[in-house]
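Subject: Interface between my chains keeps coming out wrong

I've been trying for a while to get a sensible model of this assembly. When I model each chain on its own everything looks fine, but I need the whole thing in one frame so I can look at the contacts. Pasting all components below, labels as-is. Any help appreciated, I'm running out of ideas.
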Amino acid sequence: MTPDTSRKLVNPRARHNFQGRTCSITGVGACVPSRILTNQDLEKMVETSDEWILSRTGIRERRLAADGETTSDLAAGAAKRALKQAGVSPEDVDLIIVATITPDMPFPATACLVQRKLGSKKAAAFDLEAACSGFVYGLEIGQQFIMSRTYETVLVIGAEKLSTIVDWKDRNTCVLFGDGAGAAVLQHRPNSHGLLTAVMGANGENADLLYMPGGGSKCPATSDSVAARLHFLRMDGRETFKNAVQAMLTAAQEALARCGLDISQIKCIIPHQANKRIIDAVGTRLGARPEQIFVNLDRYGNTSAASVAIALDEVVATGRIQRGDLVLIVVFGAGLTWGAAVIEW
Ligand code: ACO
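Reply #2:
Try treating it as a single job with all components included. I did that and got this:
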């Protein structure tokens, strides 16, 4: 299908076309570890049940990285597939952005380790931390570099090894998360709209709803901090849930309004894969039909920054979207952070 390049966007903040410059996603890829941890496996680790996890979250199983397998390994795996799909050589990448809350090390940036693994010698590289919203933040930042003609090719990766910061003794959180990575290649393509708009937001007032207390300047690692289990994530599930629904709804509505689009025009909605009940609540409030909404959290759980990137790869790989279709990505995460992106595929 030939993209409708005459589409008029009502709000100038939907700056999909700046002096003839647009930002397309020319390749996507994903990489998930081979090891599967099922709900039945978790029944043997903590006091929980497949029935509880499935009915409260929609998750059946998640992937766990092997001991020596790092966030940068998963990120590089996803990036290689995205570059191959885009037909781009790693040497031609100008910038690598890795969104993650589980970097290989506090420093250097995981993006630099990915650069080394890819052999993208001329690329600048940095990490960004916006938790589960990181991939949409990365798309918006990457777009800025493409639109400003600073760079021709930007690699945006969401990658996590959350299994290293999950407290496997805490049933409230350990059933929710998984490991994985997804990547997208951003480039200008004539006669294509690509990324139409991206909304980003944050509210630090609610930073303590979801956080990891230890390991930073406030609470550096000591034997006491380890013994107190401060190096694992903590979450107020109920409050996070409420905030997630409202923030995702508002972000999605703002992104659609900027483009002058109605939800019925969206072919595929890719929400952050945290909880099926959150996804259903957002979908209902948006007035979306169930068949518009993509869900894969039953197989991967919540992979934070990788979540919507893995999902985007799957919707492309399975032919669920075709060139010219409209896609809405909507995310929410610790920070609190949120975001939404509208893409003409
Ligand atoms: N198995 C069995 N029982 C459990 C489990 C479990 N795994 N976990 C909690 N329970 C119990 C609780 O102890 C509680 O028992 P109680 O009533 O005796 O105290 C009961 O189940 C209900 O607990 P709630 O927390 O009220 O359960 P809720 O229905 O809210 O579901 C959940 C919990 C799944 C965590 C939900 O609140 C949620 O998904 N929240 C949002 C998480 C999220 O979206 N995070 C996104 C950002 S992630 C990021 O940025 C990295």
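Reply #3:
Confirming on my end. The chain has two domains: 16-192, 195-344.
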